[in-house]
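Minutes, structural biology subgroup

Action item carried over from last meeting: produce the structure token record for histidine kinase (Eubacterium limosum). EB confirmed the sequence was re-checked against the source entry. Recorded below for completeness.
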Amino acid sequence: MGLLRNPEIRRLAGLYTLLTLAVAAGGLWISAACAAYVLCVCAGAGALFYGFTARRYRRLSALSLQLDQVLHGGDALKEIPDNEGELAVLQSAVCKMTLRLREQAAALEADKTALSHALADISHQLRVPLTTLGLLVPRLCSEDTGREARSRLAAEAGSLLARIQWLIDALLKLSRLESGTVGFKREPVRVSELIARAAAPLEIPMELREQTLWAEVDRDITFTGDFYWSAEAVGNILKNCMEHTPRGGQIRVSAEENPLATEILIADTGPGIAPEDRPHLFERFYKGKDSGDDSAGIGLALSQAIFIRQHGSITAESPAGGGALFRIKVYRGWTDSGRK
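Output recorded by EB:
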């Protein structure tokens, strides 16, 4: 009798009973047989109605039970009915909604995990130079430290502060790019001027390493993009090549264009890229097995994010002749959103 717990069913059953009795009383004026016939027909119709209604409510009850299980951490609804009817449409819509909610919950959990890992990586990247600074400051303040040692410690502290500043700036730029809050200019960028701008901060470090930068770029080669952000991206790649090129090595830059894209090639004479590092080379905070202690694993990720937003791409490979080769492509015809 669980069906009668529903107020609308009780009201309908009461009205149907009164109507049946009224019709049977009218038939009784004709004959007792007519009244009995009316009662039998009404009882049969009532039984059929009760059976169909009970079946619909059982399906609703089963759907409610599944939803309750989903709310308490159970599996999503297992089947989407393919039969017709409003109840089937409702059950199908609920199934799709729960599946969609599960997908969103999984995506949120993945974002939460990624954020947790990112915070842990950032914490680790900042902890190392800050710990070193914490050890340097007492020695700088000590009266027993000589002038020469004090100068050396001050230079080391300045280098650590510069590293922290670069790391924070790179993280802020990367977060702005990933959130889509950076507005890229759309203007002609001359590749030869771009390479000169990107390489300028590396002139002294490369000179100290006795490295040579060869740029063979035609002045007429251009692409449409943002000069400042593109110089940032190319500079990070040049810096990566410099760090992995041995003393006395070379870095070569060339460019070409075709009807589809402008391509910039940056090659070094270093040890190349290990096969296990290639799939993860542009991941944030990833450090390959040949990375130095000063590597933060952000520069290449930042470069890729910049060119992706400009309808471009960056790939890395190790040619047969040795070294690493970075291939930058900026395709023609991009919008502010970075898509055609």
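Discussion: The two ends are 64 Å apart (CA to CA).
Next step: EB to file the record with the rest of the batch.
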